[in-house]
């Protein structure tokens, strides 16, 4: 149940999905997402061509009329059929009468202006042969003859086709075939039509020869000797018959492959003259549509492209170029090339960042695309974009990372990085694309740490590997990839575990008996690195004492210090990526030293850490939830699974506005097993155990001890037991000394405690301004430095300490710490808690971020009970508490993130990003940011009939449908057959107009001008006709006078 439609004048594409979603695409950057409230599958779409309206038919037997002349399309009318099921619809060009075919084989006619039924009905028993004893099946096709609107071609599933005369209300011809029909298409001259059948054949019929097909074709059948019929093939699900002025017609079809082509990919077949091209697709073909130059069915069609809707992609094929290349898709649908495993959102980035990413991304364009412009070019862009750059980074299951420009209302891909390039390819992997997260994804991205100012990028993968990247505009070849192996082992009191306590490796299909095979191997050959992100260092956690490396739960990188730090449930490791050395490798317990407040016990021989019930705790992706997290998840699933979050997604909350949904996939009904099946889960057990994972890391320059008089570089470490520990960093001088002298790392002894796992930490100065971590400005490191540059020491950004001169302030900084349950503001260096807020008692915080909004800093939290809350800083005064979205899915919890200026996002389905805002300014500007789908375009002129066709009546025959289908001629339809439901479109239209009254007035004036112009043209034509009639009358009178008195023999 899918649908596809195209308006050839407006050049807008519409796609309907199984979940009742409606996607509308214009030119790149003009997109719209709508949702039918019922959620029923969309089975067909019909544009009112160049009218700014669309009819959708749903699987629940309702028809809806959408108004596309407003920025937010809305339903104007609905019609619910009660007694019959809708199977096919057809709306002729420039007609207001919609033909609706049903499962019973009847055809009803709907007036699309009033959305009421006509009394004119074509009953199945009148259409078929009276002698036929069987029902012909549901209607699978309706279309009018291109040359005669009074003749309707009706296709029944059983194989019967009827040409129905609308005026005489009887069948002119009946065409019968043994095989079931899937689709029918006309030749533009109206003398032939083609049918596709369930045995893989095509039959071409002459309209006036109903006894047998003019021609039978089996496109993929093997031609047998002795004149036997070809072997049957798979059904041809759809066929289109398009003519060209200059050459042979195109016959385009989907399906029809031979049954012996097992394992072959789905194909689209293009037959043009004697050539047949078979185009393989990556996914199943849902539907296709041929784009033609003219909207008139009785003219040469001149096809130029084919839109192919695949199960998980949208492809456009160029018919005008040899080899039929595809167009490069400009829409952000490629987010689902591989499932999204994590995402980060950065607002207010450096202004030079997007151009830099775009410039390196532009070089990545693959060859072989069509050279023509993207043909779907309708609509207009919104008037404004955000006043600041926004970037979204998505990490994927195949190890790829994509950078997206999110400054406008739609996403634009900037750059793609493939992290798997650093590893040897696994030989047993299938090359076919896969859109499910599976256990064989060893490169899946878990955590992304990015410094926009220095452009340093660090990722943690599911196989317990960390890769550090630098940005460069130069291409380089790395002879040997720098790599470090790190051993992180959880031990207490050196108690060795018996053999029975050895943790078995994760059951990974396809890895065989060798558990080491799940760890990817770094390439040992030279690696050519294109401009963009280039590998600085690879860090791999290794097996220790037969135990697999535990997945990384927290990650941070700092460009000013040249350090990267990461932790898991075993401990913490710090690496100097400039000197390529390990500085720190400690178990979590060793961080406490003698100050450990917890009672630790050796691992019990009876205890195994096998995942129970197939449910793994996502400590990493959840930013370190507590050890009781899994129990909370169980409670959440039972309490919220019955409630639908559907209406929350698409209704505008007074405070929280989901300001757009980037449906990066049209197919959001895909089963989402990303949580339960993904290896992006840590290997901690469901029951509460003594392991304490690292859940938050933050580099900063602050006061490490109470006795400190000045800030110094340090690392703050948060754990899942609610502890914050401080590690002191003693950095050598900058320049060459930084590469020669070691960095000295030592625990400070400072310990702070909160309730629940630590999620986020940040620092404020005395004015309440955010103190960002020190960073280096970006520079091109692949180009040799000048001597002057070498002499300059690398300066770190100074900490902004600005105490007021009017009063003595003894405290110099504030630490803001957010955990699953509470937030605290601690003054430094005294370490006194000055503000405390218990965020939730009955739930827990899934994501907390310290963000800037309206020139101030606040703490934004998303709770598992669906509430979004914000708190002022440093006072922690509640500013906002809105129920937005219950946690019905772990994907939401894994991907939800806040950023500056009141923005947030999460994955609403496996392949859809939902952005939302709690900023009043963005809400006010949103209407202006939306693009317009409908633009006033003049309808092309009708094809010229030609002198002889006009003289001898060979041109297209028009039909006064009003005379046939109107109430005066056909009467009223039965009220019980269908129920009319007024839509909210009128009210929505008024709301949409509020932001652009001037635009609406201009549009109204333009419409009036168009109407006046048409009336003027009509008046001129009427005057011309009157003059012609008068002239004819005058000439006739003169002839009569001339021959009045003559005898017959005088002529």
From TrEMBL:
Gene Ontology cellular component annotations, sorted alphabetically: plasma membrane; SNARE complex
Membrane topology: Peripheral membrane protein
WD repeats: 174-209
Gene Ontology annotations of biological process type: exocytosis; Golgi to plasma membrane transport; protein transport
Region: Disordered, residue numbers: 774-807
Keyword Protein transport listed: yes
Pfam families: Lgl_C (PF08596), LLGL (PF08366), WD40 (PF00400)
GO molecular function list: GTPase activator activity; myosin II binding; syntaxin binding
Entry's transmembrane regions: none
Span of domain V-SNARE coiled-coil homology: 986-1046
Localization in the cell: Cell membrane; Cytoplasm
Biased composition (Basic and acidic residues): 776-792
Keyword 4Fe-4S: no
Keywords: Cell membrane, Coiled coil, Cytoplasm, Exocytosis, Membrane, Phosphoprotein, Protein transport, Repeat, Transport, WD repeat
PANTHER family: LETHAL 2 GIANT LARVAE PROTEIN (PTHR10241), SYNTAXIN-BINDING PROTEIN 5 (PTHR10241:SF22)
Similarity comment: family membership: Belongs to the WD repeat L(2)GL family.
Protein name: Syntaxin-binding protein 5-like
Organism of provenance: Bubo bubo
């Amino acid at each position: 149940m899918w649908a596809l439609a195209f308006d050839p004048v407006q050049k807008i594409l519409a796609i309907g999905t199984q979940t009742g979603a409606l996607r509308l695409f214009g030119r790149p950057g003009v997109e719209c997402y709508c949702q039918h409230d019922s959620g029923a599958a969309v089975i067909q779409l019909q544009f009112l061509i160049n009218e700014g309206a669309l009819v959708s038919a749903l699987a629940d037997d309702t028809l809806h009329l959408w108004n596309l002349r407003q920025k937010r399309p809305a339903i104007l009318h609905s019609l619910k059929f009660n007694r019959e099921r809708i199977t096919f619809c057809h709306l002729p060009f420039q007609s207001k009468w919609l033909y609706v075919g049903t499962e019973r084989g009847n055809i009803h006619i709907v007036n699309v202006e009033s959305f009421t039924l006509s009394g004119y009905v074509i009953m199945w028993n009148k259409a078929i042969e009276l002698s036929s004893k069987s029902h012909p099946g549901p209607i699978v096709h309706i279309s009018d003859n291109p040359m005669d609107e009074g003749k309707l071609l009706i296709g029944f599933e059983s194989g019967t086709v009827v040409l129905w005369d609308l005026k005489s209300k009887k069948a002119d011809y009946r065409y019968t075939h043994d095989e079931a029909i899937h689709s029918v298409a006309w030749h533009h001259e109206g003398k032939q039509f083609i049918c596709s059948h369930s045995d893989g054949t095509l039959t071409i019929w002459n309209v006036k020869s109903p006894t047998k097909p003019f021609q039978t074709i089996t496109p993929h059948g093997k031609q047998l000797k002795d004149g036997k019929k070809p072997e049957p093939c798979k059904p041809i699900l759809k066929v289109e018959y398009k003519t060209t002025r200059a050459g042979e017609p195109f016959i385009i079809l989907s399906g029809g492959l031979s049954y012996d082509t097992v394992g072959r990919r789905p194909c689209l077949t293009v037959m043009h003259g004697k050539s047949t091209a078979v185009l393989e697709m990556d996914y199943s073909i849902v539907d296709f549509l041929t784009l033609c130059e003219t909207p008139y069915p009785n003219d040469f069609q001149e096809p130029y492209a084919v839109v192919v809707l695949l199960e998980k992609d949208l492809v456009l094929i160029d018919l005008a170029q040899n080899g039929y290349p595809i167009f490069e898709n400009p829409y952000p649908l490629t987010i689902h090339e591989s499932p999204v495993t994590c995402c980060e959102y950065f607002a207010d980035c450096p202004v030079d960042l997007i151009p830099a990413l775009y410039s390196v991304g532009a070089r990545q364009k693959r060859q072989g695309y069509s050279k023509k412009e993207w043909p779907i070019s309708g609509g207009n862009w919104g008037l404004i974009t955000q006043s600041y750059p926004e970037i979204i980074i998505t990490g994927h299951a195949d190890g790829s990372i994509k950078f997206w420009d999110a400054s406008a209302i739609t996403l634009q891909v900037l750059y793609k990085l493939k992290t798997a390039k650093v590893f040897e390819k696994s030989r047993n992997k299938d090359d076919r694309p896969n859109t499910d997260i599976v256990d064989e994804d060893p490169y899946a991205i878990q955590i992304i740490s990015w410094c926009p100012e220095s452009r340093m990028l660090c990722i943690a993968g599911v196989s317990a590997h960390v890769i550090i990247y630098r940005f460069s505009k130069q291409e380089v070849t790395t002879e040997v990839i720098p790599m470090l192996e790190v051993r992180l082992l959880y031990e207490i009191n050196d108690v060795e575990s018996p053999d029975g306590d050895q943790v078995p490796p994760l059951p990974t299909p396809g890895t065989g008996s060798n558990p080491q095979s799940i760890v990817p191997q770094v390439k040992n050959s030279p690696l050519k690195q294109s401009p963009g992100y280039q590998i600085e260092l690879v860090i791999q956690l290794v097996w220790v004492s037969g135990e697999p490396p535990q997945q990384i739960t927290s990650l941070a990188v700092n460009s000013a210090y040249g350090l990267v730090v990461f932790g898991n449930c075993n401990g913490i490791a710090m690496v100097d990526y400039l000197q390529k050395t390990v500085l720190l490798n400690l178990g979590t317990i060793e961080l406490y030293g003698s100050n450990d407040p917890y009672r630790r016990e050796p691992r019990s021989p009876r205890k195994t850490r096998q995942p129970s019930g197939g449910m793994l705790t996502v400590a990493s992706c959840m930013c370190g939830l507590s050890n009781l997290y899994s129990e909370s998840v169980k409670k959440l699933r039972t309490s919220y699974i019955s409630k639908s979050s559907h209406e929350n997604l698409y209704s505008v909350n007074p405070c929280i506005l989901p300001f757009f949904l980037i449906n990066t996939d049209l197919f959001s009904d895909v089963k989402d097993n990303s949580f339960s099946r993904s290896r992006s889960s840590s290997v901690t057990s469901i029951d509460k155990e003594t392991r304490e994972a690292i859940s938050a890391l933050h580099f900063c320059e602050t006061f490490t001890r109470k006795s400190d008089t000045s800030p110094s570089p340090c690392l703050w470490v948060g754990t899942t037991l609610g502890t914050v520990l401080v590690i002191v960093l003693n950095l050598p001088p900058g320049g060459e000394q930084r590469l020669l002298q070691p960095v000295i790392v030592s625990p400070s002894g400072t310990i702070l405690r909160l309730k629940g796992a630590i999620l986020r930490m940040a620092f404020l100065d005395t004015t309440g301004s955010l103190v960002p971590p020190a960073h280096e400005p970006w520079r091109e490191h692949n180009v040799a430095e000048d001597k002057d540059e070498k002499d300059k020491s690398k300066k770190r950004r100074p900490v902004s300490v600005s105490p007021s001169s009017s009063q003595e302030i003894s405290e110099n900084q504030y630490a803001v710490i957010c955990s699953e349950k509470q937030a605290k503001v601690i003054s430094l260096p005294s370490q006194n808690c000055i503000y405390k807020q218990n965020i939730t008692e009955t739930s827990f915080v899934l994501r907390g971020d310290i963000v800037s909004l309206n020139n101030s800093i606040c703490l934004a939290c998303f709770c598992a009970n669906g509430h979004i809350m914000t708190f002022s800083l440093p006072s922690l005064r509640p500013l906002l508490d809105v129920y937005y979205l219950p946690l019905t899915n772990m994907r939401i919890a894994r991907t939800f993130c806040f950023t500056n200026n009141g923005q947030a996002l999460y994955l609403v389905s496996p392949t859809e990003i939902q952005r939302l805002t709690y900023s009043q300014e963005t809400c006010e500007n949103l209407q202006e940011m939306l693009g317009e789908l409908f633009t006033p375009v003049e309808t092309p002129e009708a094809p010229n009939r030609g002198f002889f066709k006009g003289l001898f009546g060979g041109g297209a025959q028009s039909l006064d449908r009003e005379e046939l289908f109107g109430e005066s001629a056909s009467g009223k339809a039965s009220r019980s057959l269908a129920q009319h439901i007024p839509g909210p479109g009128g009210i929505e239209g008024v709301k949409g107009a509020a932001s652009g009254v001037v635009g609406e007035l201009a549009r109204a004036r333009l419409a009036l001008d168009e109407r006046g112009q048409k009336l003027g043209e009509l008046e001129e034509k009427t005057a011309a006709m009157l003059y012609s009639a008068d002239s004819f009358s005058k000439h006739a009178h003169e002839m009569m006078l001339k021959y009045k008195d003559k005898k017959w023999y005088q002529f």
